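3.2 Worked example (two chains)
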Amino acid sequence: MTDKSVPNTGEERGGGKFPKGLVLRLFAYLIAGHLFAAFIYLLFEMGGGQ
């Protein structure tokens, strides 16, 4: 029998830790986002130099 008075905060899953897949995806998206931004910056730097 479950206790309905306990709020569902997500802490009961994994002991309050982030899921491993979420951490890996977040890290990959951050790295990919920075690489993409660096590539766009490089394009503008090369295109803007006269």
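3.2.1 Second chain
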Amino acid sequence: MTPIPPVLVLAGPVARDRVAGLVDEVRGLVEAAAGVVVCDVGGVGPPGLAVVDLLARLQLAARRAGGRILLRAPDPALRALLDLVGVPFEMEGEAEEGEPALGVEVEVEPGEAAV
């Protein structure tokens, strides 16, 4: 059974004075949750470079602590902006690179049971 990762809800607007506290919070959550933290970004407001900067810092903190971040409910404009500036993020519910999506059977050799 996979443990349920903790969720950090980010509500906008993003203020620079909150960044250090959020970085520390993510680092602590990663260490306590075996490496995965879900960041709910549905309420961060209009995407901009301040949001991208915050998410990049949170991702860096998570990676330095040995973990990673999954984004929950990103606005399509935020996803496009993250792609544009080259800051890759995994989205909650998407299959990891190289892994099949849930419910997809992997092709097997004849005579082997499907996985």
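3.3 Remarks
The two ends are 17 Å apart (CA to CA).
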